[in-house]
TrEMBL record:
GO molecular function list: ATP binding; DNA binding; endonuclease activity; hydrolase activity
Taxonomic superkingdom: Bacteria
UniProt cross-references to Pfam families, sorted A to Z: EcoEI_R_C (PF08463), Helicase_C (PF00271), HSDR_N_2 (PF13588), ResIII (PF04851)
An example Gene Ontology CC term for this record: cytosol
Keyword presence, Zinc: no
Domain Helicase ATP-binding intervals: 179-339
Phylogenetic placement of the source organism: Bacteria, Pseudomonadati, Pseudomonadota, Gammaproteobacteria, Pseudomonadales
InterPro entries per UniProt: EcoEI_R_C_dom, Helicase/UvrB_N, Helicase_ATP-bd, Helicase_C-like, Helicase_Restrict-Modif_Enz, HSDR_N, P-loop_NTPase
One GO BP: DNA modification
Keywords: Endonuclease, Hydrolase, Nuclease
Protein name: Restriction endonuclease
């Protein structure tokens, strides 16, 4: 057998697997092969989305289930022994496995990240692979897990028999927390982005500590009743009769797992602080959900509870730790044992990406000043000064401004999906009510269908609050639009929110992240894969803050009179989006094999912290005109930063970095095996093709080829439309040298180019679609050209003819 001719899979089967078995690894319980541990980033193009390539490790070795300690990356024997090492080290970073191996079937290159094995990298023979016990001993020594803590660390996860396992980052969070507790650490902080399963993570942590008897009585604290109920009925259900929810301000010391709303055990009077009915050492573990809300603040009621049970281990969970001069989670808990960010969640495909539409209003930018002695609608004398964005809807109400915002929200919904769940964040309850009225008046037909199409959901009004469950329930159509004023917490499962409207000034990064978190959950059943933020008050400028860690896929600022819907969503798409030709890469990401483009045509929740309506003086002015203006267009560059220069200037600069002259560009274009590769490469560098093509289309009256867009914008050449290029090829009598099926195929390819551009005709898969499939099968059509090389050459010749008429 020639080892050089074996595939990578053969190398695994014939050499690596026997080496593991001989070293004592159980291939059923300790070894997992071809492990996909991410979901693949959701890549958005207009109204289409697809999945990027998943990250896969060839082998993950675990001492116990969900306790990964080693990674093996395999290569075929034409690679060197260590060729897979850097890839394996990257997987090791994600999976928190300190022992890393690379193999080509000749042996192993072993990289020890603990520093305990000897030198960092060692070459091992196939018969020298370490045993599970050897690596586990090194792992425990590295982690500081002594013999008496092993029982806790080795305690199995809860398994309901359904095959559900924690995601990789949940596994890391659970293991690090359990290991920290086993080592005796008593203050632990976990930071996990909204929508990444903090409650399930908390359950597994508690389960393992409880089952191992490391912790016998546990208190789970939350600050929203709905969070406690969701937790009890869903993730914590396996605790069964050992669990209770603290209600009616009474305590029963006969349980082991206690779930409580912190308000249920505290009060302003000492006798209301019923947590004191427990002895200070009753609980040995306290888990604080959304700990940024209270535990970090010395003055909060939470801290009274934590201080009372100070002897217990405290585990804080949050998406947004608070770090200010007055408040600090890290001061209390210490540095997080693990952080899983919004950016990483989007990159892994577990969280939904988003687009940003920024709308500037003239009064917001220019301000407004009352005339001398001017009074408002209620006869109040308006203080004479310039009012600007920070004043509107707080100290001064411009009624027409509310109408303009409501009009833009309505316009967006009408042009996308009028029934997509939408949250409008307003400055206060009064603003939320006025916004509700404006949206009701702009949507009379929808409201006639169901009066709950638009609802105000704020803390002061029971009718609205009663609709919260319906709003967050994906199966309930109504309410569709909810106006609210505050969202400072997470935890309510907002799976299908597709539009977030910001008409509220947001200065807090913590609050901003919480609001963005309303849209980040993915729901495949309801076509929720990405969402849009409609920003009227420059709140999304916080994206530029170093503390923010999740970049938008697109930032769009419509000019006056333009549609509020991002330009790449305005095109009419084919009903069957899966028939759109699919390139191997999209926006710099490889596509998962077997994935295709899917069309999103579909449909959050938040408790309100408003306790009462504002008491401050607020002027109301009804006769000041407000309109949308355009200040600038911003695009997201490949480095995650916003491009603020004009798109044309940016494009010229980027293209000329590669092709200094028109001659250089023509040479590069003509020599490229795939023209689409150049288009995609420029897109990766930040060139926004949709906008550029649209701009040149206005001049031509027809859609140009990207080739002509570059020639025109970068090198000042007159552009041709795709239709004009195709007609020139036909005038040259190009098809005369072909006959039969080959001539029909090339003629159809030219039609396809006219309709859809260069990308589809460069992919041989197009021959499986109509109208080509009506001419013959894929093999028959390729054979008409004498085989695949002949077909490829014919397509290349066709492209040469298309671009022969160059500027």
């Amino acid at each position: 057998m020639d080892k050089k001719k074996l595939t990578e899979r053969d190398i695994c089967t014939k050499y690596i697997n026997p080496a593991l078995q001989n070293a004592g690894w159980d291939m059923h319980s300790q070894v997992r092969e071809e492990v996909s541990f991410t979901a693949g980033r959701i890549i958005v193009r207009g109204r289409l989305h697809t999945r990027g390539k998943r990250r896969r490790a060839d082998y993950v070795l675990s001492y116990k289930k969900n306790l990964p300690i080693a990674i093996i990356e395999a290569k075929d024997n034409n690679h060197g022994l260590g060729d897979g090492m850097q890839q394996a080290l990257t997987y090791s970073d994600a999976l928190d496995a300190p022992f890393v191996f690379s193999s080509n079937g000749d042996g192993f290159l072993f990289h020890d990240r603990t520093g305990l094995f000897g030198q960092t990298e060692t070459t091992l023979g196939l018969d020298e692979f370490p045993t599970p016990e050897t690596l586990w001993e090194l792992y425990c020594q590295h982690k500081g897990i002594h013999q008496n803590a092993r029982q806790t660390v080795e305690q199995p996860y809860y398994d309901d028999g359904s095959g559900r396992t924690p995601r990789y980052y949940q596994t890391v969070a659970i293991n690090r927390t359990v290991e920290a507790v086993a080592r005796g650490q008593n203050r632990i902080l976990l930071v996990m982005a909204t929508g990444t399963g903090k409650t399930f993570t908390a359950f597994q942590i508690i389960w393992r500590l409880w089952k191992s008897k490391q912790k016998k009585r546990i208190l789970f604290l939350a600050d929203r009743n709905i969070l406690v109920d969701q937790t009890k009925n869903n993730d914590f259900k396996p605790f069964g009769q050992a669990m209770t929810k603290v209600t009616n301000r009474t305590v029963d010391p006969s349980y082991e797992i206690y779930l409580s709303l912190y308000q249920a055990v505290t009060g302003s009077e000492d006798e209301q602080n019923i947590y004191k009915q427990f002895s200070p050492d009753f609980f040995d573990l306290v888990v604080i959900d959304e700990c940024h809300r209270g535990s970090a603040s010395v003055d909060s009621a939470w801290r009274q509870i934590l201080d009372y049970f100070s002897a217990a281990t405290h585990v804080g969970l949050t998406a947004t730790p608070k770090e200010t001069r007055e408040v600090s989670n890290i001061d209390y808990f210490g540095e997080p044992v693990y952080t899983y960010s919004l950016k990483q969640g989007i990159e892994d495909g577990f969280l939904a990406p988003y687009k940003v539409v920024r709308i500037d209003l003239d009064r917001d930018l220019q301000g407004w000043r009352p005339s001398k002695g001017q009074t408002d609608k209620h006869g109040e004398l308006i203080e004479d000064r310039i009012y600007n964005q920070k004043d509107f809807d707080r100290q001064l109400v411009l009624e027409k401004r509310t109408e303009v915002v409501a009009q833009k929200v309505t316009e967006f919904l009408e042009q996308t999906d009028p029934y997509q769940k939408t949250i409008v964040f307003c400055e206060d309850i009064d603003h939320a009510e006025r916004m509700r009225q404006a949206l009701v008046n702009l949507n009379p037909e929808r409201v006639k269908e169901n009066r709950k199409y638009v609802m105000r959901i704020t803390g002061d009004e029971q009718e609205g609050k009663a609709e919260l469950d319906n709003f967050i329930n994906p199966e309930e159509r109504y309410p569709v639009i909810a106006t609210t004023s505050k969202l400072m917490t997470t935890g309510v499962d907002a799976q299908t929110c597709k539009l977030i409207v910001l008409d509220q000034r947001i200065q807090s990064m913590t609050e901003f992240k919480q609001i963005i978190g309303r849209g980040t959950r993915i729901n495949d059943d309801y076509n929720k894969h990405w969402f849009t933020i409609l920003d009227f008050k420059k709140a999304t400028e916080l994206f530029a803050d170093p503390a923010f860690d999740g970049d938008p896929v697109k930032v769009y600022e419509p000019k006056a009179g333009e549609s509020v819907v991002p330009d790449d969503e305005q095109e009419t798409l084919e009903p069957d989006a899966t028939e759109l030709p699919l390139s191997e890469e999209a926006e710099g990401y490889e596509i998962e094999p077997g994935e295709t483009w899917h069309r999103d045509d579909s449909q959050p929740a938040w408790p309100s912290d408003d306790q009462e309506k504002t008491k401050r003086v607020k002027y109301v002015v009804g006769d000041v005109e407000v309109s949308v203006i355009a200040e600038r267009v911003q695009y997201l560059g490949p480095d995650g930063k916003l491009i603020t220069e004009s798109l044309k200037d940016f494009t010229r600069k980027k293209v000329k970095e590669q092709y200094a002259t028109l001659t250089d560009f023509l040479k590069g274009w003509n020599q490229a095996e795939r023209k689409q590769a150049i288009i995609e490469e420029l897109a990766e560098q930040g060139v926004i093709w949709d906008d550029l093509i649209k701009d040149v289309s206005k001049k031509l009256g027809a859609e140009p080829d990207p080739f002509d867009v570059i020639c025109h914008i970068v090198y000042d050449q007159p552009p041709l439309s795709r239709k004009e290029r195709a007609e020139q090829v036909r005038k040259q009598n190009y098809f005369s040298k072909y006959e039969g099926a080959s001539k029909q195929v090339l003629d159809a390819l030219l039609d396809k180019y006219t309709d859809d551009g260069i990308e589809p005709i460069e992919d041989v898969k197009i021959l499986t679609l109509a109208p080509f499939s009506q001419i013959g099968s894929l093999m028959e059509l390729v054979d008409a050209f004498g085989g695949k090389p002949g077909y490829t050459e014919a397509v290349r010749d066709l492209e040469d003819e298309l671009y022969r008429q160059t500027p």
